[in-house]
Amino acid sequence: MRKFSFGKYALPVYAVLAFTYLLIPIAYTFVFSFNDYRRSNIAWRGFTFDNWTSVCEAQGVCEAFATSVSIGLISTVIATILGTMIAIALVRYRFKFRSAVSLLLFLPMATPELVLGAGLAAQFFNVGAEMGFGTIVIAHVMFCLSFVVVTVKARVASLDPALEEAGRDLYGSPAQVFWKITFPLLLPGIMAAALLAFALSFDDFIITYFNSGPTETFPKFVYTAAAKGLPGEANVIGMSVFFLAIAIVVTVQVRSSLKAKRLAKIK
Questions:
Q1: Exposed, middle or buried: residue 141 (CB in 10 Å: 0-12, 13-18, 19+)?
Q2: Angle at Cα 113 formed by Cα 240 and Cα 190, nearest 5°?
Q3: Domains of the chain (ranges plus CATH)?
Q4: Which residue among 80, 97, 156, 206 is buried most deeply as judged by most CB within 10 Å?
């Protein structure tokens, strides 16, 4: 007769409980995206595809979503360009206060969003800036920049300088070496940083709430609507973003796996 082993079953049970805990909000959002709701989407009233086929019928959902996407794209482009340049400078060049700059870049990541949002709002108020789309972009670039620098910096530090030296030995100009050797090698890190920045920007509520004025972003719309139950169309948009993120992750993983197999065959 076999003895009962607690350790044998503890890990699977823990894994199931952990995944259940993590996936309950996603499952709830997905199920209620098919709810035939009327005024409130809190109680289940029946199955329907109408929320998926007429996403923009709920007032303000698509406008808020489009605003969040626009802010996310603009903030991501600016933060990625600036962050990449800062990361390259911090790794490749020696200058005064380099260590202090590296340390200070971590401060926005460690500072509570409430403090950042309130501080920025006070600055905008002091200079008389009108709150809206522009102030949100400035705020998002500020907190995305640190994440981009940290991500790209790790990629720059892992590059083999011998590859660039080989390019220079072949009489490549600095611009040619950068665009044909350095940039392609940095591209995976830059893309990862850009995706992270977009996700942070699209999802942000606290800093946006302080600096948005009358501009309605998707997180603000969700917060306002949550009191009476989100419209099913908001659940549809949330799930669409979720499926898009999953598709991107799967595509990147499959592409990396195929590339690794090709390299293994060459070796």
A1: buried
A2: 55
A3: 6-51 (no CATH), 60-233 (1.10.3720.10)
A4: 80
